Amino acid sequence: TRVGILISGSGSNMEALVDSMTGDHPARACVVLSNVPGAGGLARAAARGVAIETVDHRAFGRDRAAFETALDAALAPHAPDILCLAGFMRVLTADFVSRWAGRMLNIHPSLLPKYRGLDTHARALAAGEAEHGCTVHAVTPALDDGPILGQARLRIAPDDTPATLAARVQLLEHRLYPLVLRRFAEGETDPVMLD
Ligand SMILES: N[C@@H]1O[C@H](COP(=O)(O)O)[C@@H](O)[C@H]1O
Hints:
Elements: E1 2-7, H1 12-20, E2 28-34, H2 40-47, E3 52-54, H3 64-75, E4 82-85, H4 94-99, E5 104-108, H5 120-126, E6 131-138, E7 148-155, H6 162-185, E8 192-194
Parallel strand pairs: 1-2, 1-4, 2-3, 4-5, 7-8
Antiparallel strand pairs: 5-6, 6-7
Helix pairs in contact: 1-6
This protein binds 5-O-phosphono-beta-D-ribofuranosylamine.
């Protein structure tokens, strides 16, 4: 199974995914694509011998369809079977998502359905939540809304800040996403919970 990974930033989740796909793992990373030229994750992917692509969304202004046509063209030579969104910060259209229905995963830094969207750590702290965490879900046209494939949770500490919480949640992300991807590549879609 060939896995394409879409990133926009440092790529720590991408790295965890790529490093997990070894030995008897049924999948391998075939491409890492960024919408941000020079994103830190591209160099990390190249250092691991994975092909890299860049499709700069700014070149397409508000024309999402044109951006996605360019995405398709960049991905096609690598023929991914599954797409993993890993800190990919562009909202994809329903048309693109439906073309990858059942074959695209995303990691989100909250315990969905709570805190869809941005600034999840600050919002969880502001709401006085006792628990927080991250979610891997199948991507559907509604933002951060698809079927949950896995969650990992932690207890919020009294002295947590958005930054410390983000760092603690990212450690969970790096365990959860590879676990869910492996299960998904093996055809297992029952949700898995990490505590
Ligand atoms: N959507 C969020 O964006 C962050 C990306 O980090 P990285 O994987 O690029 O390091 C992750 O924390 C993810 O939950």
